[in-house]
Amino acid sequence: MKHRFVLRCWSVSVLLAEVSTLSAGGGLQRGDLVIARNRNSVIQRFDGTTGAFIADFVPDVGGLFVGLDADLGPDGNIYVASSGSGRITRHNGITGEFLNVVVPYGAGGLNVPIDLTVGPTGDIYAYASITPSGAQLLRFDSAGNPLASAILAPENVTHGIAIAPSGDLVVGTYTNSTTYRIRRFDSTTLADLGDFVSSGGGLPGIPSDFVFRPDGYLYVAHLGPQRGVSRFDAATGAFVDIFVSPAPGPSNTTLAFDGNGDLYIATFLENAVHKYSGINGSPLGVFIPAGTGGIVDLWRALFLDDDSLLVLRGTNGAIRFDGVTGSPLGTFIADGFEGNLVGPRDCALSTDGGSLFVWDSGGPLRRFDRWTGDFVENLIASPLFDVTSFTMGPGNDFYGAERAFGSNRILHFDGETGAVGTFVPSGSGSLNFPGDLTFGPDGHLYVISTGNDKVLKYDGLSGSFLGEFVASGSGGLNSPVSLGFGPDGHLYISDFQSDSVLRYDGQSGQFIGAFVASGAGGLDGPSVISFGPNHNLYVVSRNNAVLEYAGQTGSFIGEFVPPEGAPGDTRGMFFVSEATVPAVSTWGMAILALLLSTFATLLLRNRASIERCLALKNATNRGLIAGILFFPVAAWGQLNVGSDGSDGAFTPACDITVDLSLAATASWDAP
User: Fold this and answer.
1) Which CATH number fits domain 30-60+341-575: 3.40.190.170, 2.40.33.20, 2.40.37.10, 2.120.10.30?
2) Taking the model in full, what pTM does it have?
């Protein structure tokens, strides 16, 4: 007599659809190449076989990192000098939404933009960087294309930049507390036209900011223990009067006028905004009290077209205040430390494969979802640690190289709690300016000591010093940047000065030879290295191109990823090597558990019949049955166990089949 057991599992196809969607939905897949771009503030994904660009996995969303100045352009958008990321960003003047990086890092010599103004035609003027010859003044068109540059020698610092009614560009510069002035430049060529206001021309102190007004005056705020505002003739630069009398208090940072002509002065150390009469300069009180709305590091204040007051908070984005009451209206431009990349220094996939971790400029260790690229959390939120590179260790923990202010140590970060401890003490084993680091096949930690051109070895559990693995200068090692163990177990190190990749014995550290010869394939200033799934070596060159070399011989194969961005912008690179195991939702796991339980119960009830059938079947069918028992989601279908019925005699012609068509009904017969 035959009995048929039927399990209807309509939900199985739904669960499989969910898994399939996650697996193919754009997350980091096995074999993908992942690259962190420091100045572009983005994590990019490339095809690990062809090198073709796939997508910005963690995109640039324009989070401010040390936003020091901003201006409202003739297009109604806001232009921000993001000093920490070395670029100028454009944001919607109504919503604050990030629009684009209008001037990227390095364009026209842009380095550390501090002051900027936007002219009536949309041209962007910025004091951008300090060169050996002095401060540099730059001009860009509205699309960010470089147009002109000038050196502001002998001064090397500026405060204040604006377009005069005459069309000239005026810039406040100073050398020291007694040598300062406001200078004129041709707004097209940036040719020096001489002083507009000299040190002895009525300036009571170093200018911090200035504004040309329709009343024909130039209003200048000055630094110093006594804040005040002076007025000058907008056409000639001649001193007129003291408009706001100096008074004890925090130094001025910036000034702005509202639609009624009243004056507002923002103070940096106090983080407050004071209001003054636009008629006679008399004080009208504190408009925004210190710290309101979370103001810290107040660098710039300006009124928008809707008469609200925008305040740049340095490292903390920009917030908007009611222009009448001073009440905070909320964040207007994203905070650079709230999940928005501002300059990734290194990146790695978690040991369990579920998260992408990025160490960002300024200190935060950020966690992103491996499948969606969405920001999850700042595991290390406070910018207390200047980690330049890190590696994943046992148990999803992190080990980071810190070298700022002579720290010269390796830190240990708990991957779950973010708790921090010292793993390798400062200077242990002559550790000097630690760079790249990795755990070797033996479980120990290997660290580049950049300051003395060595590779040092530390116990992978205790951090105790085990010795010099690669001696100083061994094999011509001059400026090591990146290291990694290859498929052959040997250690490979990129050397910046020699434009080569050197190979060392993975057991003894003895020099074997130059694996990639100097300059091979155009290699110039190599930085990050990584072995791909095909065992070939991939090396980042100075121009950010990724070059491919044969894993057996080191011979040049070709350019895998073309150059992009400013030189030296690539700070992290790795191939996704572990198997892709997509996440399953809570309800999906519940369905899976129910199916497993039901399936196991039915199999156990019919154990005798199944065992007799299995005894007659070949190894392939036994493997298929095992596949169903241990992973029914991947190979669910029909299992038919045949019997001739009442006499209990088993028929060898019984049938065991696995239907991979994802049928919604699974069934089998049993006596």
Assistant:
1) 2.120.10.30
2) 0.63
